[in-house]
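Lab notes, practical 5.
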Amino acid sequence: MNVVDGQWHRLDVRAIPASAAIVVAPMLPTLLVMALAGAGTTALLITVLVGLGAALLIVGGAIYERVFFRYRITEERFEQRQGGVFRNHRSIPRERIRTVDITAAPHERLFGIATVKVSTGAQADEATIKLQSISREDAESLRRGMTLGDGSTVDDAPDEGVLSRLEPRWLGYSALTTSLMLVVWGAIGSAVGSFDQLLRAWGVFEALGGVVVTLGIVAFVLVVAGIALVVGVVGAFLLSLEMWWGYQLTREPGTLRVKRGLLTTRSLSLEERRLRGVELGEPLPLRLAGGARLGAVATGLQVRSQDKKQPESKTLLPPAPRAEARRVAAAVLRDRPFDLALAPHPRAALRRRIGWALWSALGVAVVVAIPAVPGWIPTSFAVVLVVLALAVGLGFAVDAHRGLGHALGERYLVARNGSAARSTVALQRENIIGWRISRTVFQRRADLMTVGATTAAGSSLYRVYDVRTGDGLALADEAVPGLLTPFLEDAAAESVSISDGERPPN
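Output from the prediction step:
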């Protein structure tokens, strides 16, 4: 069925039973947990009645949405009407549409429907139209009909088609992603709180207390940390399996399309002419394993994902070998900015980072002294923590300085920084719209500055940290000729006035 026909369409009728499944599906495991915890018949019956009531309310809402929701796509606009008592009519010009996002959760896949979100990239709610839910066939027809861009730059490109697809061994890199580990640990903490009564009934907390007495607090903390690390890695692997299974990056006329997902499938189409560069992310565990991930710097994409369990919309490549990330970056950009040799930053930048490490170690010393002085923890253990904090801080300081670098190519500005979360961005020079130059008191004493390139894409500001003052100004002036010229002339005139003994204006 072609939905790009100018006719008004309804949501799919299968959205009604699919919405009921959201409530009914978790009811059985909930009842099972309650039965294991010793809940009475009355409590179980009340839970069933509450679940059925919630299901009826959701089904009623789905029926209301089915009756009073309409959408249509004309040659010029994408329109939506909804509401019975309070009506709302939303319209988006088709030439302003930047992304088409198709998502199918497990309950939607079961009924053959999907949710489509069309966005112009602006932050306002009026800039997005969400169709929840339409048939998978209509969703694909809509995506094909909403071709982004004119495709004139890619129709005959030799790299059109599949740019990258998942290799199962890449999932091992995803298991080293710290953000996924945090999600796993957060879920475990939430589960412990939710099943507190069940765990008490089974005597889990009493058993843990006995283990603490047997091992001692230090050994217990080390054991728990080791178990948490193993659980975090395994959980991160399972999450990455669900998120990235079936991943494929393709170039279609005018668009880049990312498909992925095992249980919940997702397809994101990005207008290629809105691409302003790419960003290579290398968190420390991933970098030590030789991996990296790749994200787009583009207008019309959310910087942060609303769902913490899902990767950001800008992600073009999941954690993969660094060589693959660089290859995909070259294929996406049709250029190789990451092959440029990066200029190192001065030793004064290293001294600044060593200073931060020393202050951090001092903070750790103050914190561990509080329980060590009364004898709550062994003094030797406290000393080891402080020495370890100092060693780790100095290691990060040296690594962060080695990671600093920048380069200027024919089309791209490349900047790298960070240690625990190293990032290398390649930003199109022609899309730099301004500069933000900052100098702290300590930077001025060391003759350093931070130069930030502003652009209407991605995180909006990409910095070159702790570069020599003269080198930073020269870099900005060469990257976008003429943009800084008036300021440089004013600075030169002020320098001459000071040298002549004149007092600079306030």
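Observations recorded by the TA: Confidence is low (pLDDT under 50) at residues 149-159, 492-506. The first helix runs from residue 15 to 24.
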